[in-house]
């Protein structure tokens, strides 16, 4: 789950991490009032959308006076900001963040993220902040430092000092940096974060200032944090992904035309690979999980069909603890509630597969049965090609 930068700033403040003075505005008049609170100083105006690369797309601007604030905000509010991460549709700017422009001597990169290979939190730092870390990794990999933090032992002082040394900080800056490290790590653990990124973390004299902040949360930990769930801005999310979140279905929208309804994340990824291998393009990643009820299958089909690009659907189920019979019953009940006008290919394997197939074959549902995952992908792609002719 993503949150806006102004919300991330508030969280950092709660954990005693200083951020530039500023507030969020939802209209021009409010923006001007905030600017006056900043004592009419030079201000940064940032579009509040869930995307990186805002600066390159015109979503971060400098205002020198009230006229600048009024003009910039009028150009931002209601506009669709298009970045590399938003896709061609972009995201509508409904809020802007106004904050004091910081005096910057040097820009650093600082982040905490989850390293799945070591099953621990990793601190990533670089003296080359202010640009995409992927770009730094590709052009100057030696400028990136990584420190694995044990989730059992937590962040140790020597690790923070080691990172500060890598960044070339002096003794006073190191003291500030170590406090930021400790407090950020505490926030990361206590709120079940998956990423906290400060880019740049600006050096200003002996102070370090998080100028741009990004925080993501692990969806699986949100049940522990209703206060974080309240920060969710569904207007900034893909409509289908927002609906999937409400329906407890794991869904990621893609740009293909073959919808996928699968149980299990690994099988879902394998299904997408099979589609791509045979020349098709998956429209989504979707994992309905174990024990999928008729309602869950119905929700999943409805979410897939919300995508107008979907021209066909593959249902790929491996019965383990959950019997394929239960899944088949769920499909039958779901199709009664959801009008499916696109081709449907179903593959069942594992526990109760034979009985599940027989149940589907006796049903009035128009579908094509497939004996394997590859077969399902090939059949679907062939059907779509015939429809195009």
List keywords for this structure.
389 residues; Dna Ligase, domain 1; D-amino Acid Aminotransferase, Chain A, domain 1; Rossmann fold; four-stranded antiparallel sheet; 13 helices; 18 strands
Brief synopsis:
The protein is α+β, with helices and mostly antiparallel strands and 389 residues long.
Topology (SSEs and partners):
Elements: H1 5-14, E1 22-25, H2 28-37, E2 43-47, E3 60-63, H3 66-76, E4 80-81, E5 91-92, E6 96-100, E7 106-115, E8 120-126, H4 133-139, E9 145-149, H5 157-167, H6 171-190, E10 193-204, E11 207-210, E12 213-217, H7 226-229, H8 239-247, E13 250-253, E14 258-262, H9 265-277, E15 284-287, H10 294-305, E16 312-319, H11 324-337, E17 344-350, H12 353-362, E18 368-369, H13 373-388
Explain what the structure shows:
The chain is of the alpha+beta class. The protein has 3 domains: 21-100, 2-Layer Sandwich (Dna Ligase, domain 1), CATH 3.30.1490.20; 106-229, 2-Layer Sandwich (D-amino Acid Aminotransferase, Chain A, domain 1); 238-388, Rossmann fold, CATH 3.40.50.261. The protein has 13 helices and 18 strands. The longest helix has 20 residues, at 171-190.
């Amino acid at each position: 789950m993503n949150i806006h930068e102004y919300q991330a700033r508030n969280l950092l403040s709660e954990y005693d991490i200083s951020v530039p003075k500023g507030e969020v505005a939802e209209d021009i008049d409010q923006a001007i009032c905030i600017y006056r609170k900043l004592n009419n100083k030079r201000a940064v105006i940032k579009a509040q959308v869930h995307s990186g690369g805002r600066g390159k797309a015109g979503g971060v601007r400098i205002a020198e006076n009230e006229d600048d604030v009024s003009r910039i905000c009028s150009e931002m509010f209601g506009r669709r900001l298009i970045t590399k991460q938003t896709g061609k549709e972009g995201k509508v700017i409904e809020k802007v963040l106004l904050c004091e422009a910081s005096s910057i001597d040097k820009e650093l990169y600082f982040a905490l993220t989850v390293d799945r290979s070591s099953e621990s939190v990793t601190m990533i730092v670089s003296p080359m902040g202010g640009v995409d870390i992927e770009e730094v990794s590709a052009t100057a990999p030696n400028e990136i430092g990584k420190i694995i933090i044990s989730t059992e032992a937590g962040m140790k002082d020597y690790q923070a000092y080691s990172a500060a040394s890598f960044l070339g900080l002096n003794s006073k800056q190191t003291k500030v940096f170590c406090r930021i490290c400790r407090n950020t790590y505490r926030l990361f653990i206590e709120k079940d974060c998956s990423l906290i990124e400060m880019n740049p973390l600006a050096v200003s004299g002996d102070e370090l200032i998080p100028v741009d902040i990004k925080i993501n949360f692990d969806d699986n930990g949100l049940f522990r944090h209703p206060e974080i769930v309240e920060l969710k801005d569904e207007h900034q999310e893909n409509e289908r992904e927002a609906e999937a979140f409400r329906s407890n279905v794991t869904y990621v929208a893609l740009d293909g035309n073959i919808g996928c309804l699968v149980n299990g994340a690994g099988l879902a990824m394998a299904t997408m690979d099979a589609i791509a291998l045979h020349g098709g393009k998956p429209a989504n990643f979707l994992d309905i999980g174990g024990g999928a009820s008729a309602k869950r299958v119905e929700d999943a089909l409805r979410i897939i069909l919300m995508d107008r690009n979907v021209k066909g659907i593959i249902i790929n189920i491996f019965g383990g603890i959950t019997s394929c019979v239960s899944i088949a019953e769920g499909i039958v009940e779901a199709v009664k509630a959801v009008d499916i006008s696109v081709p449907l290919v179903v593959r069942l394997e594992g526990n109760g597969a034979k009985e599940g197939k027989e149940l589907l074959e006796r049903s009035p549902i128009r579908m094509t049965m497939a004996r394997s995952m590859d077969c399902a992908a090939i059949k679907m792609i062939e059907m779509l090609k015939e429809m195009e002719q």
